[in-house]
Known about the structure:
Elements: H1 2-17, E1 34-37, H2 48-58, E2 62-64, H3 70-75, E3 82-87, H4 92-97, H5 99-109, E4 118-126, H6 137-153, E5 161-167, E6 171-172, E7 181-182, H7 187-200, E8 204-207, H8 210-216, H9 223-226, E9 234-236, E10 241-243, H10 246-261, E11 268-273, H11 288-303, E12 318-320, H12 359-363
Parallel strand pairs: 1-2, 1-12, 2-3, 3-4, 4-5, 5-8, 8-11, 11-12
Antiparallel strand pairs: 6-7, 9-10
Amino acid sequence: xxxxxxxxxxxxxxxxxxxxxxxxxxxxxxxxxxxxxxxxxxxxxxxxxxxxxxxxxxxxxxxxxxxxxxxxxxxxxxxxxxxxxxxxxxxxxxxxxxxxxxxxxxxxxxxxxxxxxxxxxxxxxxxxxxxxxxxxxxxxxxxxxxxxxxxxxxxxxxxxxxxxxxxxxxxxxxxxxxxxxxxxxxxxxxxxxxxxxxxxxxxxxxxxxxxxxxxxxxxxxxxxxxxxxxxxxxxxxxxxxxxxxxxxxxxxxxxxxxxxxxxxxxxxxxxxxxxxxxxxxxxxxxxxxxxxxxxxxxxxxxxxxxxxxxxxxxxxxxxxxxxxxxxxxxxxxxxxxxxxxxxxxxxxxxxxxxxxxxxxxxxxxxxxxx
Length: 370
């Protein structure tokens, strides 16, 4: 463990001392293909140190949280886990208003924990564009720029990547994928944001839920198509490709929208995807069997390290939603039942991960591979 920490510190110092762009490398928040969202809107989930044990046992290296809680950041110190922290929507106006505010936030919540806690990314806001109210649309880019400016002042811009996650509400005409564009109501905010992300080398981050798409139109969508099961799929005549699962189609629709907007080379990363194991009466597809099927097949899909039909050379990367069921989340019952694990650390359903309560999970300290 000590040798690993010394290596992290050496690489961190090397980046700080490197002003030559030929020698320095761009920040990359996601290593491998599989990650998970560690949401904490619950009063009954394990403490952060036990969560670290669970993640290491499951060999899940990439983790996203929705804030920068210091208890969590301290628990992740020295673990080798790669962490993306969130700057919540409620902080966007403050950070947009002043570079000093952004600098203070980055100092307090990022710099002070490096390099022992491997903070690899900052997600500035979540699903800001495309919301029913675009109140924060006008401050998102300013907040992103101020956070990036703070990273540069602290010589952390080659260590920590800046992103923001979008819902599929920013997309229009996504069926078939070749017809997709960005919605008119986000255009004025989206293009300048993408221009800046292209300049600093950030990906396009998408929260993509075949579960929700299926619920919206179960009469016309084959549930097997949404679950990575055998199905006829869909044929996109314009691009001459066939899709055997909905997630690939959603991602390629996003690539088409990006190309239409002038950003053909930007990578798409899935920052949330999952399937609820329980729902209300109008959420009949939210079952344990379907959740197990989706997440098991998704895990196999990501392990192949292959791309989508339109971007076959870019291995798909996805953060699963979520680590735990969260009993304090608002909304329909499904919102509180996306977890791979129950609050006590036992499995919500088995897709091949060890349970926190098992002795093997507690003692395992293997390498992080996924």
